[in-house]
Amino acid sequence: MLCGPLCRFLWLWPYLSYVEAVPIRKVQDDTKTLIKTIVTRINDISHTSVSSKQRVAGLDFIPGLHPVLSLSKMDQTLAIYQQILTGLPSRNVVQISNDLENLRDLLHLLASSKNCPLPRVRGLETLESLGGALEASLYSTEVVALSRLQASLQDMLWRLDLSPGC
């Protein structure tokens, strides 16, 4: 039979043409669920919380709340937090850091659905130079970072309902 591969392709065509894209509403719901999961993980780590507006000397590189959060600003903020958390030796933050990577992937899907693909953000370029400051105050860095991350995530959750721009 000469049409072997062609016949098999034509036989599979109805199944291949029926593949549907993931509805954007599902991606948005998954994003919100993951944010709630991360906030719960942060709550499970028993630390003293710090106000997101409170200034802590030497930890100014940890982002606070932003007045306008677009999808690109959300991704940039999460990249910074992810980089900070991966620099901490605490085993408590490993899963949160992994969740932030997944959350960033979901934000990229949301952005591409709005025809505004986000470039991969690298995070803080100066974090390596802060190595001495981080080592001197690991616990404080973890407390402040988790507290501010939690506040940022709750803000992102609220803003996702408002359909943020690129």
UniProtKB/TrEMBL annotation:
Q: What is this protein called?
A: Leptin
Q: What does this protein do?
A: Key player in the regulation of energy balance and body weight control. Once released into the circulation, has central and peripheral effects by binding LEPR, found in many tissues, which results in the activation of several major signaling pathways. In the hypothalamus, acts as an appetite-regulating factor that induces a decrease in food intake and an increase in energy consumption by inducing anorexinogenic factors and suppressing orexigenic neuropeptides, also regulates bone mass and secretion of hypothalamo-pituitary-adrenal hormones.
Q: Which organism is it from?
A: Lynx canadensis
Instruction: Tell me which family the UniProt entry assigns to this protein.
Output: Belongs to the leptin family.
- What is one term from the GO cellular component aspect held by the record? extracellular space
Q: Which Gene3D superfamilies match?
A: 1.20.1250.10
MF annotations from Gene Ontology: hormone activity; peptide hormone receptor binding
| Compartmental location | Secreted
**Keyword set, alphabetical order:** Disulfide bond, Secreted, Signal
Does the UniProt entry include the keyword Signal? yes
Give the record's GO biological process terms: energy reserve metabolic process; lipid metabolic process; negative regulation of appetite by leptin-mediated signaling pathway; positive regulation of p38MAPK cascade; positive regulation of phosphatidylinositol 3-kinase/protein kinase B signal transduction; positive regulation of receptor signaling pathway via JAK-STAT; positive regulation of TOR signaling; response to insulin
InterPro entries, per the entry: 4_helix_cytokine-like_core, Leptin
> Which pairs of positions does the record mark as disulfide bonds?
C116-C166
In the UniProt record, the signal sequence range is 1-21
Database matches in SUPFAM superfamilies: 4-helical cytokines
Q: Does the keyword Disulfide bond apply?
A: yes
Q: Name one Pfam family in it.
A: Leptin
